[in-house]
């Protein structure tokens, strides 16, 4: 099995990168560089993709992807797909793996949670602390979770692992509460169809069936890009009877320096738009539930028509889909 870890970084080789390299020796760690990046020496299972390296890959996405932007990660995903990845693990350079780092299987008997109000604050199922994930609708923070729970054999499209110490929360939580958290251990769980919770790019494991949906949008704010991708992915997973799963914290974060007020500004569009986007998803009709390219294009075209993303997003998405189709044709030949 070919296993890839994708990280974008502008730093020197961080403690997290070193720990992943030493612990997960059978994984290929791809570090995606940018204009601000420090050159990192290739060694053992670490490959640094400089801008020159990215260009030489020949992907159309390289010509469309903005510089000094988190979405350069898209080039790392494409590199992994081109090199035959069976699974892709998505993380950042400040998340350190625990010694027992692991994820459940993609086929599993699991507790499936459903909420008629569309959202579940998943952190409430791992801690009694007042906390919510980045991208959760802020007008629902005070709501008590009410759910139904069943146990089923299902297929997982994406696993979201939690992160201890500095979990993925929004700027409001950090500015007002700011408490460090260590989540309780519990059995894995999944969300039923039409029950949403945001998931991120900091500790997620992707099933090969859904690499199409790794695409990170670039015309929304930095603090919105992986959250929007997560909501889109959930909607599209359900079309094929796959689900989003959550599991225990397998990493702890030693957070890179952030300007919290800048984060707050970048998250305003998240606070304002998330529920409207989910309402939009509820009325989109898909002609062929198994056509991933057409389905993701359908969602982004609707997002563009409603003003949630810009026209450039459609151009960049088309480049991404072109590159994946080209890779697929190369494998067939």
Structure commentary:
The chain has 333 residues and is α/β, with parallel strands linked by helices. It has one domain: Spore Coat Polysaccharide Biosynthesis Protein SpsA, Chain A (Alpha-Beta Complex), CATH 3.90.550. Helix content is 33%, strand content 20%. Strands 1, 2, 3, 4, 5, 6, 7, 8, 9 and 10 form a ten-stranded mixed sheet that branches. Strand 1, helix 1 and strand 2 form a beta-alpha-beta unit. Helix 4 runs parallel beside helix 9, helix 6 runs parallel beside helix 7 and helix 8 packs antiparallel against helix 9. The longest helix is centred in the C-terminal third of the chain and has 22 residues. 40% of the residues are buried. The model has no long low-confidence stretch (mean pLDDT 95).
Quick rundown:
With 333 residues, the protein is of the alpha/beta class.
> What gross morphology would you assign?
globular
Amount of helix: 25-40%
* SSE string: EHEEHHHEEEEHEEHEHHH
Number of β-strand runs: 10
Q: What is the CATH-assigned architecture?
A: Alpha-Beta Complex
Question: Helix/strand/pairing class, anyone?
Answer: alpha/beta
Number of structurally distinct domains? 1
- CATH topology call: Spore Coat Polysaccharide Biosynthesis Protein SpsA, Chain A
Beta-strand level of the residues, as a percent range? 15-25%
| Contiguous runs where pLDDT drops below 50 for at least 5 residues | none
What would the average pLDDT be, to the nearest integer? 95
SS summary, helix count: 9
């Amino acid at each position: 099995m070919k296993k890839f870890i994708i990280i974008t970084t502008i730093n020197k080789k961080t403690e997290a990168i070193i720990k992943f390299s030493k612990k997960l020796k059978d994984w290929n760690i791809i570090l995606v560089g940018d204009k601000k990046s420090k050159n990192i020496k290739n060694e053992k299972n670490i490959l640094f993709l400089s801008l020159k390296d990215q260009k030489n890959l020949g992907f159309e996405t390289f010509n469309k992807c903005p510089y000094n932007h988190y979405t350069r990660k898209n080039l790392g995903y494409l590199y992994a797909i081109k090199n035959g990845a069976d699974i892709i693990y998505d993380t950042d350079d400040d998340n350190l793996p625990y010694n027992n780092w692991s994820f459940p299987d993609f086929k599993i008997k699991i507790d499936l949670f459903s909420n008629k109000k569309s959202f579940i604050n998943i952190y409430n199922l791992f801690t009694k602390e007042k906390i919510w994930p980045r991208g959760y609708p802020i007008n629902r923070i005070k709501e008590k979770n009410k759910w139904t729970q069943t146990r089923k054999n299902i297929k997982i499209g994406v696993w979201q692992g939690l992160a201890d110490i500095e979990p993925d929360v929004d700027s409001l939580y950090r500015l007002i509460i700011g408490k460090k958290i260590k989540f309780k251990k519990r059995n894995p769980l999944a969300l039923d169809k039409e029950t949403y919770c945001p998931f991120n790019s900091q500790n997620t494991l992707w099933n090969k069936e859904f690499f199409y949906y790794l695409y990170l949008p670039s015309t929304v704010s930095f603090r919105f890009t992986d959250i929007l991708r997560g909501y889109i992915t959930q909607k599209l997973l359900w079309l094929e009877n796959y689900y989003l799963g959550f599991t225990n914290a397998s990493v702890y974060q030693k957070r890179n320096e952030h300007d919290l007020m800048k984060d707050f500004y970048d998250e305003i569009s998240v606070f304002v738009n998330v529920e409207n986007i989910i309402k939009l998803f509820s009325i989109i009709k898909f002609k062929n539930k198994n056509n991933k390219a057409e389905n993701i294009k359908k969602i982004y075209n609707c997002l563009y028509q409603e003003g949630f993303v810009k026209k450039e997003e459609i151009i960049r998405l088309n480049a991404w889909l072109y590159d994946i189709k080209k890779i697929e044709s190369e494998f067939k030949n």
